[in-house]
Specification:
By secondary structure, this protein is of the alpha/beta class. Helix content is about 40%, strand content about 15%. The protein is built from nine helices and eight strands. Strands 1-2-3-4-5-6-7-8 form an eight-stranded parallel beta barrel, surrounded by four helices. Strand 7, helix 8 (about 180-185) and strand 8 form a beta-alpha-beta unit. The protein is globular, with a radius of gyration of 16 Å.
């Protein structure tokens, strides 16, 4: 599946893992994450970001490599947070870059053409930079109130960014749940990302049914 085919499927639904896996609980937590990824693939969730900052590089690689085997023949793509090198080594589909990561320009110039590059943005300037450097999409956050993420930007700011950057995909992040995900789509977002909302298997199943 080409990048164009991936991003032509709307809305883009972006599951981000909870980040509570660590070496002591890795067997249990990795099993839970992989089971959730299996359900995500069954329900054609667009992307899953493995965002487990408390794991060593070795364990992130192990988790990503197992995840890729689950999603190999599905429409679900696996991205690794920050570590493009681990993503490539594990045959993941791409990387999600933070402000501390290598630049989107560096990745797009040095990694395979079909390697997906997502970027975290918190301002219109950061989203514009992501687009200009060759990223495939940006998440804009926080749209709604979410713990420890600062003041929410709201739907007006989301609409402004989406309008200015279109057709570049902007994915809404931050406080998105079953009560408001339709509103971000109505205001121009190509999709939405979530941690709490999308880490529940029943929500993945219900969401897929609702969007159909």
């Amino acid at each position: 599946m080409s990048k164009k085919q991936i991003f032509d499927r709307k809305p883009l639904i972006y599951l981000i893992t909870e980040g509570d896996a660590a070496m002591p609980n890795f067997p249990e937590k990795s099993a839970q994450i992989l089971n959730l990824i299996k359900i995500a693939a069954q329900n054609k969730i667009s992307f899953v970001q493995i965002r487990e900052k408390n794991l060593s590089a070795r364990l992130v690689f192990e988790l990503a490599a197992k995840a890729v085997k689950i999603t190999r023949n599905s429409k679900t793509k696996i991205l690794v947070n920050d570590r493009a090198d681990i993503a490539l080594a594990a045959s993941a589909d791409g990387v999600h870059l933070t402000s501390a990561s290598l630049s989107a320009k560096t990745i797009s110039q040095n990694f395979p053409r079909e390697f997906i590059v997502g970027v975290s943005a918190h301002t219109i300037e950061e989203a514009e930079k992501a687009k200009s450097e060759g990223a495939d999409f940006a998440t804009l956050s926080p749209i709604f109130a979410t713990p420890e993420k600062g003041l929410p930007k709201g739907l007006d700011a989301l609409r402004e960014v989406c309008e200015k950057l279109k057709p570049f995909p902007v994915i809404a992040l931050g406080g998105v749940d079953e009560t408001n995900f339709k509103s971000v789509l109505e205001n121009g977002a190509s999709g939405f990302a979530a941690i709490r909302f999308l880490n529940k298997a029943e929500n993945l199943r219900k969401l897929t049914a609702d969007l159909r």
